[in-house]
Amino acid sequence: MPLIRRDPPSPSGEIPTSPEAARQDMLSGDPLVRRRAVRHLGDGPQAVPSLMEALRREGEPAVREAIFTALAALPDAAEPLASLLRSQDAGLRNGAIEALQAMPGPARLLLPGLLADSDADVRLLSAEIARGLPAGEATALLCGVLERESDVNVCMTAIEILAEIGTPEAVPILRGLPRRFPAAPVVGFAVDIAAKRITGAQN
Fold first, then answer.
1. pLDDT digits over 65-76, tens only?
2. Lower Cβ count inside 10 Å, N or C end of the chain?
3. Helix extents (H) in the chain
4. Which residues contact 182 (CB under 8 A, 6 or more apart)?
5. Residue 106 predicted with pLDDT over 50
């Protein structure tokens, strides 16, 4: 999963570019021009549609990274970013997860709906976004998932995240999970590890 890094400071003497000129530059064949143009598309909600449009057609990793970084700074971008969880492009899905983890305020408003989505893949990816929340908040959300989730892969992802950041409140819910998946012994194994890590962290 790519790391989102801030763009380097603008080169000294760089000529300011209008958002309209930046949108034209985003069509350039030169990745350096497109990456520079990202800075000039604006830093308000009006920039979100242009950044999302550019992101969907962008294939250069460094430019994608710059776009994701710009979007992560815009609260209005949270919902458009969440729509990328349904993309067939793994790079877009992973970039969206990282960007949403970097903006926990707007992301937490979307998570209850995403974690209850009808698509199991969306629920699984949304659990990864919860990793960016404070431990107590993430634990409450993921325990809610474990109490109702029927997809074993989603549960395994939630268990893995709880093993890393879960609080003791998760342990009783984890302990009850293997009974619901008797045909998947890996669940019991993962629960044992997660519970030991959580309780061990308190000793």
1. 999 999 999 999
2. C
3. 19-25, 31-38, 48-57, 61-72, 78-83, 90-101, 104-114, 120-130, 135-148, 152-165, 171-176, 185-200
4. none
5. yes
